[in-house]
Amino acid sequence: MTATAGTVETAGAQPTEALARWARRNAWSLGLLAFFAALLVFTKFIQPSYGVTGVQGLAISVLPLALAAVAQAIVVISGGIDLSIGSMMALTNVVAASLMLGRSDEFAVVVVVGVLLLGLVLGAVNGALVVLTRVPDIVVTLAMSFVWAGCALLVLKTPGGGSAQWLKDLVLGPLGNEWIPKAAIVLVLIVGLIWWAVRRSRFGLSLYAIGSNQLAAFRSGVSVGRAKVFAYALTGLFAAFAGLSLTASTGIGNPLSGSYTLQSVAAVVLGGVSLAGGRGGAFGPIVAVLILALLRTDMTFLNLNPNLATSAQGIILIGVVMVGTLFQIRRGRP
Amino acid sequence: MTETVRTERAGARWLTVAAWRGLFRDRPIIPLLGLLGVLMVVSELVRPGIVSTQWLGAMVRGAVPLAILAGCQTLAMITGGIDLSVGAVASMSGFVVATFVSSPGGWPVGLAVALVAAILAGLVTGIGVGVFRVHPLIMTLGMSFVVLGLANVWQLVKVQAGGGVPPELRWLGSASVAEIVPYSLLVFVPVAVLILLILRRTGYGRLLYAIGDNPIAARLSGARAWQVLITLYVLSAVLAAIAGFVLTGLTNVASVTLADSAVLPSVAAAVIGGTSIMGGRGGYGGTMVGALILTVISSLLSSLGYPEAVRQVLFGAIIVAVAAAYTRVTAEA
Amino acid sequence: MTLAATDLLLEATGVSKTYGAVVALKAASLAVRPGEVHALMGANGAGKSTLVKILTGAVRPDSGTIAVRGRPRIVHSPGEARRGGLVSVYQEPALIPDLDIRSNLRLTETPIEPFRHWLRELGVDDLDLLSTARHVPLASLRIIDLARALAIEPDVLMLDEMTAALPANLTERVLEVIGRLRGGDRSVIFISHRLIEIGAVCDRATVLREGETVGVVDVDEGSEERIVELMLGDIVKGLPGRDGRRATGGARATAAKPRLTARNLASGTKLQDVSFDLAPGEVLGVVALEGQGQDELFDVLAGSERASSGELLVDGSPVSFHHPADAIRAGLVFVAADRAEALLMQRSVRENIALPYTARIRSWGPIDLRGEGRTVDAAVATLQIDARAGREVRRLSGGNQQKVTIARWVAGGVKTLLCFDPTRGIDIRTKQQIYVLLRELAEAGAAVLLYTSDLKEIPLVCDRAIVIFGGRVVSEIDAASADETALLRAAYNLRSDALMPEDVAAEAVAGAVGAEVAGPLPDESPASGQPASER
Q1: Going from the N-terminus, what domains does chain B have, and what CATH number goes with each?
Q2: What is the value of ipTM here, to two decimals?
């Protein structure tokens, strides 16, 4: 059977090879990380005073968008897209802020748990509508973005409400070493625990499966509809985390969410998650968010017009996708 | 036996359900006009005396910019795409005109500059989508960032020069003949006729539908999609710029984010009008009615004293319901 | 009757399924005994794959009953079927491309150790479970899919063209493993185009034709003839004007200067070396089993793919197509088998027929509606298209849809028509109309290249036919005098000499089966290239 070995290109796994494979598989994320490190060095170079405050500010400012990007990544991996993330963030943000205003710390704990459940429900509603109506994801979530944003405005017309002190303390300031921002720890804990657990589970596999090849997933015994609703619910949960982080970092609730939805899509694409589904993870999008934020900071340091950062973000987004598509086209033709 | 029973029942159903399905599927504009009529009746019932010629004029005036932007979405969605950059392009165009008011040459120069900028933006979008095959959602999203950033830079450059909405645009956007027929129809009617003619009577329009319905079939028939798509996104950007001019005149505001809030409603108007985001299906007639419906609902709600919030929730619910209904009736039997 | 039913492991009766206007299954039945390897046979489009999909819950039948071990069972999803002991290995491996093999096993809750065991049995000892499915070659994926199915020890294992795309040595191992499953209390349903494999491993065979079960055959020596007969059906029935219709065709065609000449065309892995001449006024048939390179050949000719080597001449001058538009300009127009690939399903008959005339940039302007209407009406009349539901092409019947794809090219006058299985899955009347049309086009001076999976069309429509096997032209046949059995044999490449008396032919098949059982497989698989018998 020597011929068999020739036709089946396989080889035994060795530690170095496993490492190489891991690196190859995460090449994009590692590249982003290296770029981020280089950017940090560059920042320090052009602005020698950049240090503890800069890092702390960076961490706290990216926390909501980083969580939103993870939320978007989950649904994109499963082959969909959620244009209502920003609105869900706004809704959970104002619900938390309005309920916590002037209440006890203990009650705030109940609120936090309740708001997270609310996020799950909002996402599940999105997912159920996508599955039941068979209307394209983009249309359903676009419409639901109106609904959730309207609900947010019903809860709180203008910015207001408040946040429990412990919630603010959870994300503001350093932990132990002054270089380690609490916001970063929180991000790592939330994403690490939940995403890690999901990814290891069979349900997490089915997310990748329906995004990668829906027919093969169906034939492998995956319940496609259920997996889709689950993906949207998980996205809703992370949107709720992002909304809570807004409450915590700003201390208030704001019904006008800003442009988190579209920025989360940009971060996901830059973070190496394929819009076609099935590929990518949570790490890449987070690093992409960090890079975009730091680029904006650097532009102010360089006395460049900070508005150019918006353009730069657009150009980077387009450029990365163009290069990626070109590679795919070339690879598609043997 | 069971066979015959089944066919008989099917025959009876054909008169009711299937006939309605056919109506929705083939002539969505008729039930949409019905819905518009119902909304007008409701308006009159809850606010007696509100429906008048002036009110109608105001509705049309308010719907014109949205209808033009929704025209961009209709064209893009027919090819299976979407154009999220219309908001940024429209805002940028209106803003650029305003900054040229006190420059030599005045607003006509601004108009030309804005159009050239819009065409450039559309050209880049079209090349990205047509040649590099970037997903239209991503490409237009990225382009909206680029345009917004550049418009912001322009704002800082021009902030000393001063500016303002030129009276000509204000006249175009918000004045009416005898307080009834808005002047913006001077722009809108040619635009609407152009879009309708393109979609119904030109080879180019046929190709838009063909690419959206089945890109492989279009290719096998000899169509080169990149040519069609580049032209499409340039056309869409020009239309967005025109909508920006009208909107600036209507609101008497020149801001780089003026039309951002109109992007999602423009998609909504096209969806309500029966254009499928999957491509190959729809037209501009329904879109125009869709834009009017959204405008009337807004006005109805605000006249009842409902907050903006309720309007948004209702918009969303309507889009999902209408899209679900379309999906159901157009599904293969 | 009830006693007999409980003897069966799986029984399906009266199963039907229609997709829109296309009837995939009319009245299919299948009865599988415990411990047998049961072949499911039928020509392309006979409904084998649909039946398997229904049995595994991937597709819901319109009617019919399915019983497992005598108990009626309704299966709603592949997951449910899997838990109930019905597992299928499909033609396209059901592995998630972006997951590694280990994750794919976890997704289907497959125990690892039995999986490894079966993998070794199948002759793959060194698979790295951490490699991503996307990067594993197709042949290995199919083996993995099979091992994964075997590992959960299903009651009924369904194998859909399991040996296609496998190299000869792996095919041998697969057949060996399947053969060893015989006699237990589990069964295998085996779908294959290769008669030799059926003879080697199967106990009985159920034959489907046009969505109906037409017979169940005990597989033994000589049963191949019976199977072939059942698959082809009553050939002459309902087809008019078989005799003397085309006395001049061949002679005239060869005398003329070729319209299209292919020299040593190759593309990808499947199309190896194809050469032929196609003259005006001639219908040249292409005879091939599924996946012998004919898809790639037509893609190259239609300008969808570029040839990796070889030469293409139109009217004697070399051409190179970068886009289908180039081929169209050179007069080569393509009628695809997959109507979903050729039609704008949501658009009208008129728009579909007129599509090629608006494709070029110079016809982007206003349409001459009256002129277009005349052209389209003429084409609709020529092809007798029933365009009552013409507002949306998807509401037409399959036959009318196919006529639209042809009308598109006929409307403007056709020089070279490339037809890829134009009658697949359409009714007999429409088929006849298409035959007549192709002949008429040829009489009017068009050159027609016709690939068909329905072999009885070859003598009806074609002047000559080339047989492609393993990406190469292995023989040329004078179509008018070839009979169906001989053509089928030629397509299977059983013997190069296509015309032989029935008894000799039967002997040849039996002999080939015997040889297979005794020793190594003959040169059957596509991977082994050009068979020695051809030289």
Answers
A1: 52-327 (1.10.3470)
A2: 0.84
